[in-house]
Amino acid sequence: MIKRRADVAIIGAGPAGIAAAIKAKLLGLETVLIENRDILGGIPLQCIHPGFGIHYFKEDLTGCEFIQRLIDRMYSVGVDLILNAYVHSIEFNSYIEKRVNVITPNGVYKIDTKTIIYATGARERHLFELNIFGDRPDGVYTAGEAQTLMDLYGILPGENIVIIGSGDVGLIMARRFALEGANVKAVIEIMPYPGGLIRNIVQCLRDFNIPLYLSHTVTDIIGSKRVESVKVAKVDENLRPIKSTEFEIPCDTIVIAAGLIPNIELLEKIGVAMDPKTRGPIVNEFLETSIPGIFVAGNALVINDLVDYAAEQGEIAAEGAKIYIENSGIPTKSWIKMTLGRNIRFVVPHYISGERDVILYARVQKPENNVYLSIANLKIKMYSVRPAEMVRIKIPAKTITENHYVTVPVEVIPT
Amino acid sequence: MSNNEIELICIICPIGCSIKVYKVLDNIKIEGALCPRGVNYARQEILDPKRIVMSVVKVKNGDLPVVSVKTDVPIPKKCINEIMRLTALIEVEAPIKIGQVIVKDVCGANLIATREVKKNS
Ligand code: SF4
Questions:
Q1: Do A181 and B11 touch (CB under 8 A)?
Q2: Residue A280 pLDDT > 60, yes or no?
Q3: Is A151 close to B77, i.e. CB distance below 8 A?
Q4: Looking at domain A126-258, which CATH architecture does it have?
Q5: Same domain, B59 and B107
Q6: CB of B33 closer than 6 A to ligand 1?
Q7: What are the tens digits of pLDDT across the range A290-328?
Q8: What is the mean pLDDT of residues A168-195?
């Protein structure tokens, strides 16, 4: 058994975890970064498309380029790393004593730490979560699996492809398939609007004339050994398939791109309170969870559509850890609750102090044009809001304090 | 008329304006953009659409079987197939550094590596 002490233990070395580690180290904290793979970087390692780093590095990079730069920066500040490390459990012993139990090929580590930043990312939703019936033949992949096969190992998973869901990874893979000469027959989206960013709809689907079926669902998968076809139908307002509209699309491969779910297992085990909307933890403005000194950042907190936001959250959590250690807790008179108003699906963070400027991330429930985003008495004009595009806004502290808010309503109001 | 009417979605910012472009003889009329950046985008898309192209190429003796590549500048959309035919044919020897030029001067761009591949030990 190996014993270690730290100010902050960061779990997960993807964009959020690495950005948190760099920031924590620069703030003078004794930092340990724990990663379960044998390689740093997380999901961007498999992303060969651009769209990374526009805010963080002020440059449009591919996923691999972005993460390499972040890793280089991390090495230049010198962070303690533990690779091949499986985090078995987290213990909360007191306000400033936590323990992370880690199993590695070199033995078991017991890391006694004052704070923890949890940055374990997200997993893909799979077929069994989508209520799709039928056979279970070979040829069904998640978008991330297809991406790993193609872009890390150079293997094309099939020739005639149907993509279920229009999340960004699925759209990006549609383009990759098309570029590599596969035939993308359709992208099927159950909602009346796309799940991914506009630029991906344009550059991944329209550029290659790939049909997008909105308000449609797959009702059946057919195939004995390999996928042979799917049945597709229109859905009604309650998202139930309309039998009479059913048609069949022959294909040999199905790719599921139905969104991501935060990885929160270890936090759930120790009783961290969760938000059923984000499916991640409930947090304050430093991204501290309901258990003092345990912070969360990146896709484990909330599903981000830009890597830059995940990295930013890592930095916010690191600042939180620093303040927490200096004050044995985050000093605040009281926490003010953000409440969800009209056309708001979720807001992160859930509680703010009003004592500092704060960055707010929110998603809307449905697309709307010409609206105001209203936060307390702050009104921000927006030409359009869409569920696929996360809203990120900086709220100045005085907006809240000057008006003595008890709760802060966030809502979308038509103009 | 419909032949000369093209609908675009501006991708420059998240607002995503629907832009209509009318082509009458040599004149282009652009409607629906909320700002000048959208007008420029539409003109570029109609007259000379360009894209960054990314793919993977085979690697000899690497710790991974392929390396990811991209064009270092956007190339004309009509050249995409030429780039893809090329990436399917070539093979490079490990080690490969990020930013290393894999193919020089094709369709007005260089094809550069976007991932490090180490030599297989
Ligand atoms: S036209 Fe201007 S406002 Fe509209 S999407 Fe393009 S950049 Fe944004």
A1: no
A2: yes
A3: no
A4: 3-Layer(bba) Sandwich (3.50)
A5: yes
A6: yes
A7: 999 999 999 999 999 899 999 999 999 999 999 999 999
A8: 93
- Which residue carries 């197939």 as its tokens? B81
Judge whether B121 lies within some domain.
no
ipTM rounded to 2 decimals = 0.86
pLDDT at B3: 57
**Upstream peptide bond of B95 is cis (omega within 30 degrees of 0):** yes
Chains A, B: CB pairs < 8 Å: 71
Cα(B45) to centroid(ligand 1), Å: 14
Q: Which residue range is the domain that position B61 belongs to?
A: 54-113
Question: Mutation test of ligand 1: which of B8, B11, B41 has the most ligand atoms closer than 8 Å to its C-beta?
Answer: B41
Distances (CA, A) of B79 to A167, A337, B83: 28, 54, 7
* Set of chain B residues whose Cβ sits within 8 Å of the Cβ of A201: 9
How many domains does one find in chain B? 2
* CATH 3.50.50.60 residue window(s) in chain A: 2-123+261-331, 126-258
Q: Residue B97 domain-assigned?
A: yes
Residue nearest to atom 3 of ligand 1 (CA): B34
Q: Is residue B107 part of a domain?
A: yes
Residue A402 above 80 pLDDT? Answer: no
Does residue B88's CB lie within 6 angstroms of at least one atom of ligand 1? no
Q: Does A244 score more than 50 pLDDT?
A: yes
Pairing of strands B91-93, B50-51: unpaired
**Ligand 1 neighbourhood includes B73 CB (under 6 angstroms):** no
Q: Model's pTM, two decimal places?
A: 0.91
